[in-house]
């Protein structure tokens, strides 16, 4: 009978937990913990079994009992307790059918504070000159079961009453405020208020030496930022963003923040970027801490987005929770989208919605692979869940929400969200529940429209042709390797013609359609040269556009004449790049298009020009080594003039975006091998190395200089490498350590690359950070692959249960660009692949093949040499 419960995606639903009374006692030096779970279980259907989750726990079998009535005389013990390791469940069989209704299940257990950054784990930090352990939890997605036995699925919401016994000098935090604290000698027993109904993956505890700063929202909710002792100043920015976001969300969602307090804590070892635990949000240090003097503008933005994202989850995710992991995107896509809404309101000068196109583009990049997956994805086993925290759930998710938001209008959308939150508060929802609410509010067929985007993988490219005054549009699924597939979508199309006032909207419901745009192009005749037509106005749609030659020429004119919005300028170059990679456009026409951006000075647009430039520079090394220098020369020319305008030093009162642009431009010029930039970077590095307080190398531009230093570093003169290591070792700030790590492996010298990679596996680099050191150049990639194979055993064991293992696989595999290599890599993994990184591996291999295909395309571009000569000479 217990067999029936094995290999199932979900726990049986004949019993459900209503309340957990959890007692935990961590031993911070021995790295152990013990605990008791007293769970109020509601038996809903006749059964002799209770089936719940437990993993890596030592369950004290003799302690397990079920009290079936108020009089404790009715306490029974299970006949058998079976722990099914591969399903992470525990099956309790009783001698007879359990009485329906509530009983108390009591279980004693113990476990190890592990080093894997999941479940109940330990993080190391320094306190008063000594290394100490902090006890931390990370339960999403399926790791609460590693801390206490529980019904570890999002739909089993229950109330939690937590009690901790910890050393009395430590801060001990959990989701709710402290209700009682008793000190007995070196230990204290801290109990917390009972929580409202919530899912297990949101339960959290943090125990360690911590300081805090605090503030109050307009509603009087107490918000604190906890950091290591002495670092609270670096929490001020996040606290400010948190207070402002909470004030904003309570209005936007029209529901107050659901708990009496919110704590946010910086954790020194943390697998993800941040985690939205209810009332106790945990962060990687770089995602929470900001230092006016030592942090970059980019970090500032990252902290703001991360805080706004996690706090959005307090409503979207925590108060209303996805019914099952298939609907993970409801959590992540929404929190991502909402975070931009909040950051835009708090920092309007950041132009964050234009930057949002980063998300759309990452989503599109992943979703153009055959190895992508639909937003709503079937989950058959707990070990498949972590793999879907990817660009599809986050970026495509957020982007299709933006598409719908723009289609329905802001007011209608907000009203619907507010009523959705109200309707499903303290409960769970599926994707279609949200569509139903939106449908009711708007009167539009939201469900049909959106099903085509969330139940089907991929997205279309819309080809447009003009034929007299008719616009012919045709959709086809877009795949990066240029192959075709059968998908069709209901596409909300928008277009503008020669002016943003002159616009149209319509829904494409079939493969192709013809559209009369007579009214829009009345003024075309006679003014042929100023005519332009742009589809997907401001890139709100999740699709690409391929224009016929005439329309493409019109857009090039519009870019040069500065007629287009920033978002449209970005969209045009992003689509052109993707079409070129898929060999649906030539590299020569992409380069000519880029030339039209030579007068651009805006950060958001130039960032795209830069990222496309670097991709091109990377592929031409492999595709056309003969033309590679000339192409790079053209790209350098393109970026040099905005770089010269900005210079290396911050101007007084310059904008946040210019500060970020400077960093991007200098880094790109270094990567493109521009000698004067590399030399200046090295010159400034010398000064900075000898005087760390010098202002010649402020945090924003530092990484460009570090990479310049590493590009010139060789095994016969390792000064650059040694100096950077010294900076790494002396750095107090995680952000600075990351800058160094991200530069070390960019040397062209193989033995330095090897040193840098080996360094990643030493004790000096935290496991959470190693993957950021895999920034290897084309010259270093073979070395990196050999190193990776040799160390696979160690790497796969060390990062086994973290999403970071996927990161390793992705970073290394994606360096390559040939069919042979992809085959070789596939063979290496044939008997090594595991479910946790299988998806990442397949996607990375597909990327390698796509690049190989692109290389073939570039090689067959007959006009490339001529176009490149023309562009390079002209520039
Ligand atoms: N819920 C996630 C954290 C998470 C990620 C848990 C993966 C389990 C597996 C959190 O809300 C999140 O999305 N964090 C992001 C940062 C955010 C700004 C996009 C992260 O960790 O990168
Ligand atoms: Zn999230």
UniProtKB/TrEMBL annotation:
Its cofactor is Zn(2+). SUPFAM superfamilies: ARM repeat, Leukotriene A4 hydrolase N-terminal domain, Metalloproteases ('zincins'), catalytic domain. Binds 1 zinc ion per subunit. Zn(2+) binds at residues 309, 313, 332. Residues 532-849 form the ERAP1-like C-terminal domain. Residues 237-453 form the Peptidase M1 membrane alanine aminopeptidase domain. One of its GO terms (molecular function) is zinc ion binding. One of its GO terms (cellular component) is extracellular space. This is Aminopeptidase.
